[in-house]
Amino acid sequence: MTFTFTALLCLGEMYSLHANGKHTQLLLSYFLAGTLHKPIIKAETGSVVTSGSPMTICCEGSLDAEIYVLHKEGSQKPWGTQTPEKPENKAKFSIPSVTKQHGGQYRCYCYSSAGWSERSDTLELVVTGIYHKKPRLTALPSPVVTLGENMTLQCVSQEGYDELVLTKEDQKFLSSLNSQFIYSIIQYQALFSIDHVTSDHGGTFRCYGYYNQTPHMWSVPSEPLEIHITVLSKKPSLLTHQGQILDPGKSLTLQCCSDINYDRFALYKLGGADFTQNGGQWTQSGLSLANFTLGPVSSSTGGQYRCYGAHNLSSEWSASSDPLDILITGQRPFSPSLSVKPNSTVHSGDNVTLLCQSPYKVDTFILSKEGAAQQPQQLKSKSEAWDFQAEFSMSAVTSALSGTYRCYGSQDSSPYLLSYGSDPVELMVSGEVTLNSQRSIRASSPPPSRPMPTAGEYQAPQCREYAPSPGCLTALNPEKSSCLCHFSL
Questions:
Q1: Which helix (H) or strand (E) holds 3?
Q2: In this structure, what are the phi and psi dihedrals at residue 436, rounded to the nearest 5 degrees?
Q3: pLDDT score of 118 more than 70
Q4: Radius of gyration of the chain (CA)
Q5: I want to staple 350 with a disulfide (CB 3.0 to 4.6 A). Which of 346, 391, 426, 436 is the partner?
Q6: How far is the C-alpha of 427 from the C-alpha of 429, rounded, in Å?
């Protein structure tokens, strides 16, 4: 015990000396050269801690340790010492409420009758929430990325932080980059590139900013960004009963459907941060599906949607469905005009042009047929005299093209927000369709709407072959008249 008492006296004397004195350095070298293995230091809840939160630093040494010492770099005295009441291989140093003064580098060491241990490795303790200008984190091009592909996470800030830091919730990923001022957006940014994405990259990311003179004091975090990893398994289909062009206030339900028995489905809107999940249901015909209700719709509903399927035992998602555009009308204060050339009543096999025009600026015209199952046609506008216009040409028309048409205008700055619709134009195609060998024809025009299947119902197929091919379309259009049948004559 004499040696222990002497060691403690020397330890106290050591810290009473000037921090930069030669005697201090010699004493540190003497005591911390150590004959014991160096202890392990860690923060129990992670080394990135929110200001005001409690935290505990753990120093793990040997069972015969009699004293544990925690040292913070730059301090002339030990930050804390503990003497275990019973044989214990660790000591815990608790901080009830973290402040910016707690940020910094920590090491610990311990003493037993065999002498002093080496110092532990360095623990970098960071305190967040010190600066209140929040950065913004986005994924380019999307927070849904296929296994093995590359991904870029963009951290943007209006505040001129010297460094921007990217972290992951489990702290398996942490990276810091110098911020760059981007004149085009009048903001600072850092681009974090992740090559060859693995399943470990799925999860929640955040980014922070800090200044070089205070590297252990960070800003409040960005909003969390959830990254989802997909694999190249069979993609589901994304469908809508109400059509893709909707007036504000209308109800909208999107259905994700697959002939693979996925346990859950997710809906993602391009450019959004949300990844909405719903449990799967099963039909008696072997389909799995989930409904996503988005109505009543507004301007914020407009956008491009995709859906994904997954099994409960997997954190990875299927390949995405084909994109589905949802367009909202009445968001531009004008209506284009629609006309037909040569006229609105033609014979089968004739050529027809539908001309959409507007005196107001239009970047893209959209032509929609009432009740059509296929996506609306879109054409870039051309400026002619004082008008913007687009010509939708149809060659060798058939009776399937008969129906009511409208056109709309949009601008590139918000392509999913449309003008009011034009007055309707009725196109009538008369005459019989000639069947040629190996030619695919539609037995009649598509039905006005596409009914969705419900869990438990059974729909018997009526055609030998369908287009497009996903099995859920069998349930959606069971009538023979709505199938694309192939005849060999």
A1: helix 2-16
A2: -105, 160
A3: yes
A4: 34
A5: 346
A6: 7
